[in-house]
């Protein structure tokens, strides 16, 4: 049993924060793990994480510390989950996707592109010994419904649990990918289908939680038994309080739905880390779609890393403090992931293969 990895990341001051002369930088780094956060009332709070990424940190540093060990394990059939958390505008999507999934230089590529690359590199190093297949699914949780981002007609995907494979999304589209460039093209077609709205906080803030699932199968179909690791990347919707978004109508409903699911996530984390035994008897995973999908990640059978994204500015201090406290609580979650086997592979696989091939061709051409 080890604790999940929790890191924090401060983005640079935005141009709006720079123009606003009342804004100060709240974070005073001590070392790579510790910093002091001074709130708008000049009160000091000290925080420690597995690693702190300050404004000059490169995307590659974040990937190598937070994600690479998890990517390597996924190729060995150990599930992994990487989550970005924080208020809207804090740098979650930048950390995950960089400025754009398709069009950005390698230096700016986010965890997503680097993980896709990393999976293929890890596979190459084992070439010959085993055969791997990588498949990709993308869903978003919007207003408590799980939507398939590769097939919008599947707008209410059900969540199931299997004893061997853990949490599964019923009938979700899985697209086989054969190289990193192809993966980026397929990812970008899914991202284009995300629900984006406008709030006062961010021009195109995402109003949904976005979940990328890479399934890495290892072994030959004719053996009817393959090992299977899932690498799940989660770009959460903004954690800010509803009032701060200035939302009305549908946008307000969206914000409330986001707040409810993030509260459910907080409650699950509290239940997992309370008391001397470290865990409550009942963990309320079923209180939201998000916690249900993250059940494997939080319940122990996954290597999990959480990136708490924050603005460094005093005008966002209350939200940043709330994000950092969320991360501090999550540090107590324990995990002991084990390798997965998936039996009877051929039965599930062959039937739907034809339609998926068609969709794949359509995206890539
Ligand atoms: P979120 O997904 O948390 O709402 P974004 O990732 O969209 O926030 O970030 C908001 C803005 O800040 C974007 O314009 C993004 O490019 C910029 N940004 C975020 N993090 C960084 C960073 N580490 N370096 C440079 N720019 C960043
Ligand atoms: Mg975002």
TrEMBL record:
Origin superkingdom: Eukaryota
Positions contributing to ATP binding: 86-93
Residue intervals of the Kinesin motor domain: 3-333
Keywords, in A-Z order: ATP-binding, Coiled coil, Microtubule, Motor protein, Nucleotide-binding
Family membership noted in the UniProt record: Belongs to the TRAFAC class myosin-kinesin ATPase superfamily. Kinesin family.
Record protein name field: Kinesin-like protein
Source organism per UniProt: Xanthoceras sorbifolium
Residue range from the parent sequence: 1 to 365 of 484
């Amino acid at each position: 049993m080890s604790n999940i990895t929790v890191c924090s990341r401060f983005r640079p001051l935005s141009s709006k924060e720079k123009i606003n002369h009342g804004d100060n930088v709240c974070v005073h780094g001590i070392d790579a793990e510790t910093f002091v956060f001074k709130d708008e009332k000049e009160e000091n709070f000290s925080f420690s994480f597995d690693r702190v990424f300050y404004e000059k940190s490169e995307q590659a540093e974040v990937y190598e510390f937070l994600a690479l060990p998890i990517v390597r394990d996924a190729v060995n059939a150990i599930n992994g989950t990487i989550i970005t958390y924080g208020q809207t505008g804090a740098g979650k999507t930048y950390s995950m996707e960089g400025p754009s999934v398709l069009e950005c230089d390698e230096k700016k590529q986010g965890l997503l592109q680097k993980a896709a690359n990393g999976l293929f590199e890890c596979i190459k190093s084992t070439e010959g010994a085993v055969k791997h297949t990588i498949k990709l699914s993308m869903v978003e949780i919007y207003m408590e419904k799980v939507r398939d981002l590769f097939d919008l007609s599947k707008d209410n995907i059900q969540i199931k649990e299997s004893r061997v494979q853990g949490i599964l999304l019923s009938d979700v589209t899985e697209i086989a990918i054969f190289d990193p460039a192809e993966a980026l093209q397929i990812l970008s077609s899914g991202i284009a289908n995300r629900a984006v709205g406008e709030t006062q906080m961010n021009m195109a803030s995402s109003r949904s939680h976005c979940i990328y699932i890479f399934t890495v199968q290892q072994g030959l179909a004719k053996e009817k038994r393959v090992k299977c690791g899932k690498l799940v990347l989660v770009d959460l919707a903004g954690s800010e309080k509803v009032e701060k978004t200035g939302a009305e109508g549908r946008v307000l409903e969206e914000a409330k739905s986001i707040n409810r699911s993030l509260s459910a996530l907080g409650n699950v984390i509290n239940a997992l880390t309370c008391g001397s035994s470290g865990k409550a008897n009942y963990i309320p995973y079923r209180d939201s779609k998000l916690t249900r999908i993250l059940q494997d990640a939080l319940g122990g059978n996954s290597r999990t890393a959480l990136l708490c994204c924050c603005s460094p500015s005093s005008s966002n201090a209350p939200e940043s403090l709330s994000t950092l406290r969320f991360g501090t609580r999550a540090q107590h979650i324990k995990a002991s992931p084990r390798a997965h086997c998936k039996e009877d592979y051929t039965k599930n696989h062959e039937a739907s293969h034809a339609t998926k091939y068609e969709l794949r061709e359509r995206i890539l051409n």
